[in-house]
Amino acid sequence: MKATAKAHTNIALIKYWGKRNEELILPTNSSLSITLDGFYTTTSVAFDEDLSEDIFVLNNEVITGEAYRRVSRFLHLIRETAGKQNLYARVNSVNEVPTAAGFASSASGFAALAAAGTRALGLDLTHEDLSRITRQGSGSACRSIYGGFVEWNMGKREDGTDSQAIQIQTENHWDVRVAAVELNSKMKKISSRAGMKRTVETSAFYSGWLDSIPNDLKEMKAGIATKDFEKVGAVAEANCLKMHATTLGATPPFTYWHDSTMRVMQTVQEMRKKGIPAYFTIDAGPNVKVLYLPENEEQVEKILKDIPDVQNVTLSKIGPGVTYL
Ligand code: DP6
Fold first, then answer.
1. CB 241 within 8 A of CB 282
2. Atom of ligand 1 nearest to the CA of 107
């Protein structure tokens, strides 16, 4: 009744931004991401008949409060699926993801937890089944089941049975790199969950966001298939800007950007004017991820590190899906 799994985080090139069902975590739009090699979570789950409640240890610290409840609720879903409702677990997670703003450690975290938890209870699931369960821990996590280029199909059904991710290309298809630019180690103030909820409910620009998704997805998939870096980068950058624009149209309005976020964005655009193909994308926090090609790695890293307020630049390749240890 014990299993250990490792999952990598992912960065969306077409963002998931909004839910149509908060309980089941069903999105209002399909999204597309790449899985990253450099950031991952390793999780062991051990079910034990002697336990009277779940225990969650993250980076050697016993976790309580909302983070604990989220994990325990998710374990309950796994227990129900396996028909073993009265069995509690000890969860031990080690995060190689900076939990600071903008890097979704919840993606690798819930993907590793789902993989280890289901295997510990003897469930033999396809990747699509596993992705669907993982989705209910954290939406973006359902994409981290796979390596490479991954699409989360929003699905149509209201019970969520057709809302899961699929792999569109493996990690060996194309060597695109991502520089994670860390600006601020402070925790973000508005979680992605709360931010997208406020946006769906109040943003004047939300319908414009949704209308733009089908074409962005189509262009992105064509760019990936033909390895057209300019196309992939331009569509990703524009999609990110549209997502962030919806937050400015919310009530009350908000933004995840700091002044240093904009400095990095401008620097990336200046790089392009100098002939270095590089494009940015940003999640629900101030940090920026920069897409580039291997031949430009040295230049890109140097330029990013020289920007004032940049604390750290971590380079990553495209990574694999869930593995069992
Ligand atoms: C901006 O997956 O963290 O990173 O489903 O509520 O857990 P929940 O939200 P989460 O949202 C991620 C939002 C995003 C875009 C993306 O990863 O697609």
1. no
2. 2
* 215-230: pLDDT as tens digits: 999 999 999 999 999 9
ipTM value, please give it.
0.99
Residue 52: phi and psi, rounded to 5, are -105, -5
Nearest CA to ligand 1 atom 4: 283
Select from 173, 202, 222 the last residue of a domain.
Answer: 173
Nearest atom (ligand 1) to Cα of 10:
17
Q: Cα separation of 13 and 151, whole Å? A: 10
> Cis peptide before 252, with omega less than 30 degrees from 0?
yes
CA gap 108, 66 in Å, rounded: 18
Residues 133 and 198 in one domain: no
Q: Is the CB of 90 within 6 Å of ligand 1?
A: no
- The whole-number pLDDT of residue 175 equals 98
**How far apart are alpha carbons 69 and 88 in whole angstroms?**
13
Q: What DSSP character marks residue 159?
A: T
**If pLDDT is split at 50, 70 and 90, which confidence band does 101 have?**
very low
- Picking from 116, 139, 173, the residue at the C-terminal end of a domain is 173
**Per-residue pLDDT at 87:** 96
Average pLDDT over residues 251-275: 96
Ligand 1 atom at shortest distance from the alpha carbon of 141: 2
186 pLDDT more than 80: no
Q: Are residues 163 and 202 in the same domain?
A: no
Asked if pLDDT for residue 99 goes beyond 90, the answer is no
Q: Is 140 in the pocket of ligand 1 (CB under 6 A)?
A: yes
Q: If you take atom 7 of ligand 1, which residue's CA is the nearest one?
A: 138
Is the distance from the beta carbon of residue 278 to the nearest atom of ligand 1 less than 6 Å?
no
Q: Could you tell me if residue 325 is inside a domain?
A: no
Mutation choice for ligand 1 from 30, 41, 140, 217, CB with most ligand atoms inside 8 A: 140
Give the pLDDT band of residue 189 (cuts 50, 70, 90): confident
SS3 at position 157? coil
Residue 33 alpha carbon, nearest atom of ligand 1: 18
Closest Cα to atom 5, ligand 1: which residue?
Answer: 139
